[in-house]
């Protein structure tokens, strides 16, 4: 619109007798239901746990098996990334997990990655991408204890509008059992990295404005706590609000809006029950505990979270997308004034959806475990 208006002004200034310029044409937003085209970019790649888009449009993706590859969207070729650490452990739910391109990549060429290591510990690291080589590997944080059953690592990375890095970490520990008498209280313990959302500066230091939590004399990396297994995390484009989804036990999967210093209750509170059938709590409401915005029973095992951010998606623009491992679906959740509403199943019976992410130019990427696929969705 601005270009059209400037052009009209230029023409009128070239002719003394020209008519007054017309007002700029305002194009209304596209409305209606978009027609979606689905393209399979990759297949037979194992479990594509995390991926992100480089400034040139190429895709960097991790494989749970402990490898990372660069997909050239022009040539359609993969290149293996070398220089990864040798202590990546793929036991249980672990492996090479999330990957995220640093907001300052244009100058730093830094990439952040999370992975489990030998013994069941979880690490957050960054490296410099030089061609197909990961150089200057720097471990930023490693859990001080192990997930001895190699489960519930969580481990998504998101960058906030404040320029900070947010990292979700599951409860870890020796097992998963909810309730006041559970011996697995990592989510409530503020002396462990497990069961938290962490907030860091891009250099790995602690932001001065991180919340001061009960018993602390200075801020730590902990931004929120009481989380069980958060495997989807994203900032809403229009509001800058942080949303997280996480696995419940038998039922009680959650969608939460996360704010500084909040306690989300696990393992003391859940809308689900333990796998052995024993109760956890009478609902999720208690003083000082944040209840989920949405809860699902039976469990859907949510994984991946993003927001549609392109006008080509018409009425869908601004809505939330979320994968489901258990129900093998891609879900869309309508958003109104930052509040989640009705759900629509966009893709069904396509396999275990591990991750979903909004990319540039209106492209949405979805990784599906079955067939080791990476899908590209565009609105026609």
Automatic annotation (TrEMBL):
Annotated EC? 1.1.5.-
Query: Among its keywords, does the record have tRNA-binding?
Result: no
Question: Which molecular-function annotations from GO does this UniProt entry contain?
Answer: oxidoreductase activity
**Keyword annotations:** Oxidoreductase
Judged by the first EC level, this protein's enzyme class is: oxidoreductase
Q: State the Gene3D superfamilies in the record.
A: TolB, C-terminal domain (2.120.10.30)
Q: Indicate the segments forming the Glucose/Sorbosone dehydrogenase domain, all copies.
A: 49-375
- InterPro entries according to UniProt: 6-blade_b-propeller_TolB-like (IPR011042), Glc/Sorbosone_DH (IPR012938), Quinoprot_gluc/sorb_DH_b-prop (IPR011041)
Question: What domain of life does the native source organism fall in?
Answer: Bacteria
Pfam annotation, one family = GSDH
Keyword field contains Oxidoreductase: yes
Name of protein: PQQ-dependent sugar dehydrogenase
Q: What is the lineage of its organism?
A: Bacteria, Pseudomonadati, Bacteroidota, Flavobacteriia, Flavobacteriales
